[in-house]
Design brief:
The complex is a heterodimer of chains A (647) and B (146).
Chain A (H helix, E strand, L loop, with lengths): L1 H28 L3 H30 L6 H6 L6 H6 L5 H23 L6 H23 L24 H15 L1 H13 L5 H31 L10 H26 L3 H24 L14 H21 L16 H33 L3 E3 L1 H21 L10 H24 L5 H30 L4 H11 L1 H26 L1 E8 L3 E4 L2 E12 L4 E11 L1 E6 L2 E4 L7 E3 L1 E3 L4 E10 L5 E10 L2 H18 L8
Helix pairs in contact in A: 1-2, 1-6, 2-5, 2-6, 5-6, 5-7, 6-8, 7-9, 8-9, 8-11, 9-10, 9-19, 10-11, 10-13, 11-12, 13-14, 14-16, 15-16, 16-17, 16-18, 17-18, 18-19
Chain B lengths: L1 H28 E5 L1 H6 L6 E8 L5 E3 L4 E7 L4 E7 L11 E8 L5 E8 L16 H11 L2
Parallel strand pairs in B: 1-2, 5-7
Antiparallel strand pairs in B: 2-4, 2-6, 3-4, 4-5, 6-7
The chains are: A alpha+beta (647), B alpha+beta (146).
């Protein structure tokens, strides 16, 4: 029964979404509020029905209903309870359901929050959100139906991709999709502004927090993805410039640009056209990312979900871009800038440059990702550019962005006088420059690493200067130091949330720089009792043991690690899943603030007498996760509702 | 208007720098995808290739003590000998697809710096053909203890 009910629910939801999108539009055009109300009910209906689809699919997973093809492929009788739930979104069909469900949830929250406040924009926002919803429901009903039957019904399923049996896999897609779908909200508002002709600042003010929320989830998703790559994939890295990673990174870059550029519009009434374009671009990139990852267009180590839905996504992307660009052209006259840049030495131009660099970075990532496709189409040879390309082109851009991170928040609006520049930047510049010597003495040699460290000190100093000055100002008003600091964070939570995010990015940058510059690795085969040494660590092979887990067999190695003193026993493993034709590595590691010891078991003799291991000493990697935590805290602070300033 | 000109010039400089960086990046890190037949037809020693094919049955040699891995990649028409330093990655094996990155050497073999095993996620009936001997393998390991 489940497949029939689920399929029917999806189809009814599709009809409701289409009805709602049309009704809201017609209702506002012809001045019939009843139609808009009907669209609202349709959105609620969509939410209920998609929730039902999601629940039914989950139930099918929990009860091992192998009559469903999707369930049979992605689970088997050995799959633990916990992973049976996460397996629901372990592949294409289920992840589209998750996506649709989140989108319907966002639509509901938008209705609750903006029904009254958005006024003329509201019906159009509803139209756009339901139209996007209808697209995903079309994918569910036609291109990637999760409720397809399988006959004959197998006695056992194939099982989840073992790489996905990890806690990171619950949170990573969820966070990422909350980010992706969340970006639909600013997009819907932007289109509503264009359609209704109210291209002023109202839509910006209303979507600002939505953008931060989406950005928060997107960042979280990227970070968890990096952590998953680091501790599951067993290559000792956290970022490979894989197309799947790039797919999520591009909208992150343009959304970051947007978070900054809206401030200029709020403050100076400039960049209307630019902001609308950024929102459209960002939303387009989320669709493009899904197209990249889900169509299998680019062969990739991540491509665990190849399907034939590429055409769907590409057509929808084309439709979205065509419509949006048409609307921009239609409203061209209203979008012309009202303000003008006064000086190159101003906050506006710092932010503008930040935007140019972020979009440039997004473009290079895009270019590098589609380069194999382009070269194949144009020249008939498949040429790819790998990590060296992305690093080479992006490192200068990111260093420049770090520099702007120090300049932007402190430089004056309109025109910075020499005096104000001196007041704000003498200390940070001096500290940054002076820090070069100790870093050099500590062994920081490469130009990039040295520059990154110096810039970190510079930016941290600018943030401190600002914070200390603002705290002092409040102290003069009679507040004590700590309440003054707390008051600053909470009352100007958007500004200081932004600063905390900047600090988090700096810490991540330190981790990335350090791990790229100083990580070392070796690979060797050890007999039992033999040891390998690397960077002061001594790793001795003690033997192998085997065990039977619920859905796989596991061969575990025991390696004692010492570093002058005993560090502990690392137990990297090889896992043999019946549904996989070869084993999967289980990494073991000791994380540390200075460095991680990271051990991967390779090939081994069946009698346990010898084993090949890859030993890595990865430097400063933990700071990436610490910086990530700081960054997300900052974003949360910025999401808090802004307090009204006392009159 | 002068200010406007400044921004135009600034923008042009940034665009030019970006264009140059992309151009330089592409020319330095471009890797050509080839099949064994394509490589055999026009091998250029020292050029970076990404070679994709099937690991030929019976060709896989793995020497744990020296970490020497060698095998032949074929496409049904011809084969290319590949050598690599390091243990075979997960999902790598005979009669399985693999992509290797590296360069052709004057000595007549492909020197791989990176091996990417390719695995299909097509539906397979459970337990068919997967790890036929792995239970025995477990048993030997268990009985051996440490």
């Amino acid at each position: 029964m489940i497949p029939e009910i689920g399929g029917a629910a999806a189809m009814v939801a599709l009809a409701l979404a289409v009805w709602g999108a049309v009704a809201a539009a017609v209702g506002t055009r012809t001045g019939r509020p009843a139609l808009v109300l009907s669209a609202q009910h349709a959105a609620l209906g969509v939410f209920v029905l998609v929730t039902a689809c999601f629940a039914l699919l989950t139930y099918a997973f929990l009860t091992f209903d192998f009559s469903l093809r999707y369930v049979a492929i992605n689970t088997n009788l050995g799959t633990p309870f916990y992973y049976r739930i996460t397996a629901v979104w372990g592949a294409l069909e289920g992840s589209i359901i998750l996506w649709a469900w989140m989108l319907s949830l966002y639509t509901l929250i938008v209705i609750l929050r903006h029904r009254e406040s958005a006024q003329e924009l509201y019906p159009w926002v509803l139209t756009v959100m339901l139209a996007v919803m209808a697209f995903f429901l079309l994918v569910i009903t036609v291109a990637a139906p999760p409720f397809e039957r399988l006959a004959p019904v197998p006695a056992d399923g194939r099982g989840l991709n073992p790489l996905l049996e990890d806690t990171g896999m619950i949170t990573h897609p969820v966070a990422l999709y909350l980010g992706f779908t969340g970006l639909t909200v600013p997009f819907a508002f932007a289109l509503a502004a264009l359609i209704s002709g109210r291209v002023g600042d109202a839509w910006i003010t209303m979507t600002r927090r939505w953008t931060i929320i989406a950005w928060y989830f997107l960042s979280l998703g990227l970070l968890i993805g990096g952590w998953w790559s680091y501790h599951v994939l067993g290559w000792g890295g956290y970022w490979a410039w894989d197309p799947v990673e790039n797919a999520a990174f591009m909208p992150w870059l343009t959304a970051t640009a947007l978070l900054h550029s809206v401030m200029i519009q709020e403050r100076r009434r400039m960049l209307k056209l630019w902001n609308l374009s950024l929102v459209i671009l960002t939303f387009g990139l989320t669709l493009f990312g899904t197209f990249l990852t889900r169509s299998g267009v680019i062969a990739s180590v991540h491509a665990f979900t190849q399907g034939s839905i590429g055409v769907f996504f590409l057509s929808f992307l084309a439709l979205v871009l065509f419509t949006a660009l048409g609307l921009l052209a239609w409203r061209w006259d209203a979008l012309r800038a009202q303000g003008a840049l006064d000086s190159i030495l101003s906050r506006e131009s710092a932010f503008l440059l930040n935007n140019v660099l972020l979009v440039a970075a997004a473009f290079t990532v895009f270019f590098g990702t589609v380069f194999p496709l382009l070269s194949e189409a144009v020249r008939g040879v498949k040429v790819s550019v790998g990590a060296p390309f992305f690093n080479q082109v992006n490192v200068p851009l990111f260093l420049a962005l770090m520099f702007l991170m120090g300049v932007g928040p402190l430089i004056a609006w309109r025109r910075a006088s020499l005096d104000s520049l001196r007041r704000n930047f003498v200390w940070p510049v001096a500290l940054g420059a002076l820090s070069a010597a100790p870093f050099f003495a500590l062994g920081v040699r490469g130009a990039v690493a040295l520059l990154a460290f110096v810039l970190t000190v510079f930016v941290a100093a600018t943030i401190s200067v600002d914070f200390v000055r603002a705290t002092r100002a409040r102290k003069r008003m009679g507040e004590r130091v700590l309440p003054a600091m707390g008051g600053l964070l909470l009352r100007h939570n958007r500004r200081y949330g932004g600063f905390v995010v900047h600090l988090g990015i700096l810490i991540v940058a330190l981790g990335v720089t350090g791990s790229q510059a100083w990580s070392v690795q070796t690979e060797t085969t050890l007999r039992r009792g033999e040891a390998v040494e690397l960077a002061g660590y001594r790793v001795r092979f003690e033997g192998l043991s085997a065990s039977e887990e619920s859905n796989h067999f596991k061969v575990t190695g025991a390696f004692t690690v010492s570093n002058g003193r005993a560090v502990g026993v690392l137990q990297p493993a090889k896992k043999f899943y019946p549904q996989e034709t070869s084993p999967i590595a289980g990494v073991d590691y000791r994380l540390g603030l200075r460095e991680d010891v990271y051990l991967v078991l390779g090939d081994f003799a069946q009698d346990g007498s010898q084993a090949t291991v890859k030993l890595q000493v990865n430097r400063l990697v933990s700071w990436i996760w610490i910086g990530g935590a700081v960054l997300t805290l900052g974003a949360m602070l910025a999401i808090l509702p802004e307090r009204k300033k006392p009159a | 208007m002068r200010r406007h000109a400044k921004f135009v010039v600034g923008g042009a400089v940034i665009a030019a720098a970006l264009g140059y960086m992309i151009y330089a990046g592409v020319t330095q890190s471009a890797v050509y995808f080839v099949t064994p037949s394509e490589l055999r037809a026009a091998p250029v020693a020292g050029k970076a290739y990404r070679l994709g094919g099937m690991v030929e049955a019976g060709s896989l040699r793995w020497e744990p003590r020296t970490l020497d891995l060698s095998f032949a990649l074929g496409d049904g028409k011809t084969t290319v000998p590949v050598r690599h330093k390091g243990s075979p990655p997960d999902l790598f094996g005979e009669r399985r697809g693999a992509v290797v990155e590296g360069s052709w050497t004057a000595e007549g073999y492909f020197k791989a710096s990176l091996i990417l095993a390719k695995h299909s996620e097509e539906y397979k009936a459970p337990h068919d053909g997967g790890q036929p001997g792995y239970k025995e393998l477990m048993r030997t390991l268990k009985s051996d203890g440490r």
